[in-house]
Write a structure and sequence with these properties.
The protein is an alpha/beta fold and 469 residues long. It is built from 18 helices and 14 strands. Bound molecules: uridine-5'-diphosphate-xylopyranose (UDX). The site of uridine-5'-diphosphate-xylopyranose has 19 residues, from helix 9.
């Protein structure tokens, strides 16, 4: 089988590579070729010192074991298509920036060009697996393109096989998935193709966790799963605002609510807002889909999950300004963490970007530290978030530090935007001694031991806690 990736504008595709690497590891009898048109990215996958193009705990070990054995990386897309029996289309599907559905609909440009390439190049029958998250009924379009362009004797079966892994835990999620979902047409050929792919996963996933459903159910399930996960976070974040206003404690509320086995304890952590490449994009897709289906109430319902997230981010920025005596102009603030969550270098839709943008609009000086995000990525994200500022102007206000301690020196306030474990282990006494007083800490991730910090002398504000500073 072969993976197929096309380059995206800035971000490497973060799911296709790990998924296909794990398939290769678990199925030594299957040759897996991951292809990408981007030479630099393929060179990174092939690099002798395993300087892989994405950071994901455990990935290097997987690649070390399988690379050269039955896992290959190449830019020769056509050859890989010709040789493959099964092709994963795992390209990025960003939100459209212009045209119909701008800001909502998925940009299917990469999916379509990958599909057309397969049709043009294939000389034998293939199972084509839609792995990217796509709007409902995309598989249908892929099938139309493939059928209209295929050569005599070639048949294409389309499957939908959405990926549910989360970044930072990708390898663990792939080794032990809650479920593998495969959608197919309910024809005999569709079911046979489905059984073929299920057979690949059955090499390491228990059979009762491999779910087979109709094509459109599969496509919709991926959007639904992400929308409902994001909805949980927006719900808990909405409650965190009530906690702050009343003196209740969101940790205690989440714990109490999560004890109900129907609700469950996971994914109820209040935060400065959710980020990542999936949640917002998939909800907006669902909103767009609902609108195109003339279901405005349904669209409005899901849109609110994203709006609550925007509110949470701006509420957090505002509380920093309010607490710092209603102005942060000319003040120095450290922002710890820039990735959208811990254990990843990915910054897509990271709440840290919005917060820093808000601080810049107030003309504060911001020092950013993140253990895994590249400097160039930070500059790029801030340039995009602040189109009215030149990079030069941004650089006058923003500094990038190389350690948390450095970032915090002589600052008026510290903002925790990502839940990196190392921020819990900072030498807070040293940080305190070097800060302007009163020294403020704003914990947007329920990370620090607020009581301990208060004993040192900090003024601490934690998301979802109503206590006084
Ligand atoms: C998500 C889904 O979990 C995954 O199944 C899907 O395949 C892709 O989208 P990912 O975006 O990698 O994965 O990360 P996830 O762990 O879901 O976190 C998303 C965002 O929500 C992060 O910004 C995270 O910090 C935030 N979050 C998560 C919370 O604020 N509170 C929580 O309780 C959980």
């Amino acid at each position: 089988s072969g993976g197929h990736e096309l380059p995206s504008f800035h971000h490497p595709n973060t799911k296709g590579g790990p998924t296909c690497a794990v398939i290769a590891l678990k199925c030594p009898h299957i040759a897996v070729t991951i292809v990408d048109l981007n030479q630099a990215r393929i060179d990174a996958w092939n690099s002798p010192d395993f300087a892989l193009p994405i950071y994901e705990p455990g990935l290097e070990e997987v690649v070390r074991q399988a690379r050269g054995r039955n896992l290959f990386f190449s830019t020769d897309v056509d050859k890989a298509i010709q040789e493959a029996d099964l092709i994963f289309v795992s390209v990025n599907t960003p939100t459209k920036k212009s045209g119909v559905g701008a800001g909502f609909g998925a940009d299917l440009h990469y999916v379509e060009s990958a599909t057309r390439r397969i049709a043009a190049v294939a000389t034998s029958s293939k199972i084509v697996v839609e792995k990217s998250t796509v709007p409902c009924r995309t598989a249908e379009s892929m099938r139309t393109i493939l059928e209209a362009n295929c050569k005599p004797g070639c048949r294409f079966d389309i499957l939908s096989n959405p990926e549910f892994l989360a970044e930072g835990t990708a390898i663990g999620d792939l080794f032990k998935p809650d479920r593998v979902l495969i959608g197919s047409l309910q024809t005999q050929e569709g079911k046979d193709a489905c059984a073929g792919l299920a057979g690949v996963y059955a090499n390491w996933v228990p059979k009762d966790r491999i779910l087979t459903v109709g094509l459109w159910s599969s496509e919709l399930s991926k959007l639904a799963a992400n929308a409902m996960l994001a909805q949980r976070i927006s719900s808990i974040n909405a409650l965190s605002a009530i906690c702050e206003a009343t003196g209740a404690n969101i940790d205690e509320v989440a714990h109490a609510v999560g004890f109900d086995s129907r609700v469950g304890p996971k994914f109820l952590r209040a935060s400065v807002g959710f980020g990542g490449s999936c949640f917002q994009k998939d909800i907006l897709n669902l909103v767009y889909l609902s609108e195109s289906l003339h279901l405005p109430q349904v669209a409005e319902y899901w849109r609110q999950v994203v709006e609550m997230n925007e509110y949470q981010k701006s509420r957090f920025s505002k509380s920093v300004v309010d607490t710092l005596f209603n102005t942060i102009t000319g003040k120095h603030i450290a922002v710890l963490g820039f990735a959208f969550k811990a254990d990843t270098g990915d910054t897509r839709e990271s709440p840290a970007i919005t917060i820093v943008r808000d601080f810049l609009a107030e003309r504060a000086y911001v020092t950013i530290y993140d253990p895994k995000v590249d400097e160039a990525q930070i500059w790029q994200d801030l340039s995009e978030a602040c189109p009215s500022l030149s990079l030069e102007q941004i650089k006058k206000q923003v500094t990038i530090a190389h350690s948390a301690l450095d970032a915090c020196k002589q600052k008026e306030a510290i903002v925790i935007a990502t839940e990196w474990k190392e921020f819990r282990e900072i030498d807070w006494q040293t940080v305190y001694d070097d800060m302007t007083k009163p020294a403020f800490v704003f914990d947007g991730r329920l990370l620090v031991d607020a009581d301990k910090l208060r004993q040192i002398g900090f003024k601490v504000k934690v998301i979802g806690r109503g206590e006084r500073l």
